[in-house]
Amino acid sequence: MSKKNQRNTKSKIVAAAWKLFYEQGFENTTVDEIILESKTSKGSFYHYFSGKDELLGSLSYLFDEKYEEITPELELINSSFEKLIFMNEKLFSMIEDSISIDLLARMYSSQLTTKGEKHLLDYSRSYFRLLREVVSEGQKGGELRNDLSTNEIVKMYALIERGLLYDWCICNGDYPLGSYSRKLLPNLLDFIKNPE
């Protein structure tokens, strides 16, 4: 099986699982329902995941798919700083619309207790690749600071996003994530702009 087909199969399983988790809840969703919804096989499911619990760490795959989906739109935005705001807005809108707070909290919890690879911190993800491209472009164009490395700025951006999501989870979604982030993120990211 080619890498692309493998990625598509895994993506189908992840997308189906999170759709069902959102609609029915994690506890009420079975592996068989995920297989049926994803139109894959039991063998494929267990090739990628040891069980339903392992899917909790797979939310980052959905996030990466969202970033890949919006990449063409980013090319229409001239400012690197505005690209970062746009990326956040699209991701947080997706989270608000299709990921329950309970599932997001479970995912964070699973990342805290996971030994070894943590999907959220996998720097080979599309998320980090795209962030590095946008930040590097902004630094080359003089819009973003050059006294910090690209990786330092990317790490800070990711930390701010995780912090906003974590706060939203512990506040049980008492405020609209997207609009709160739209107000707060530009101020939090102001430090990465080139001061000249």
What would you say this structure looks like, in words?
This protein is mainly α and 196 residues long. It has two domains: 49 residues, Homeodomain-like (Arc Repressor Mutant, subunit A, Orthogonal Bundle); 140 residues, Tetracycline Repressor, domain 2 (Orthogonal Bundle), CATH 1.10.357.10. It is 68% helix and 0% strand. The chain is built from nine helices and no strands. Helix 6 crosses helix 8 and helix 7 packs across helix 8. The chain is globular, with a radius of gyration of 18 Å. The N and C termini lie far apart (52 Å). The relative contact order is 0.11.
Q: How many discrete structural domains? A: 2
User: What is the number of helices?
Assistant: 9
- Find the structural class using helix and strand composition: mainly alpha
- Arithmetic mean of pLDDT: 86
Provide the low-confidence segments as ranges. none
Using only CA atoms, what is the Rg?
A: 18 Å
The major sheet is characterized as: none
CATH superfamily of the largest domain: Tetracycline Repressor, domain 2
List key phrases describing it:
Tetracycline Repressor, domain 2; Arc Repressor Mutant, subunit A; 196 residues; globular; mainly alpha; 9 helices
How are the secondary structure elements laid out?
Elements: H1 3-24, H2 31-38, H3 42-48, H4 59-74, H5 80-98, H6 101-113, H7 126-140, H8 150-170, H9 177-189
Helix pairs in contact: 1-2, 1-4, 4-5, 5-7, 5-9, 6-8, 7-8, 8-9
Task: Summarize this entry quickly.
This protein has helices at 3-24, 31-38, 42-48, 59-74, 80-98, 101-113, 126-140, 150-170, 177-189. With 196 residues, it is an all-alpha fold. The N and C termini lie far apart (52 Å).
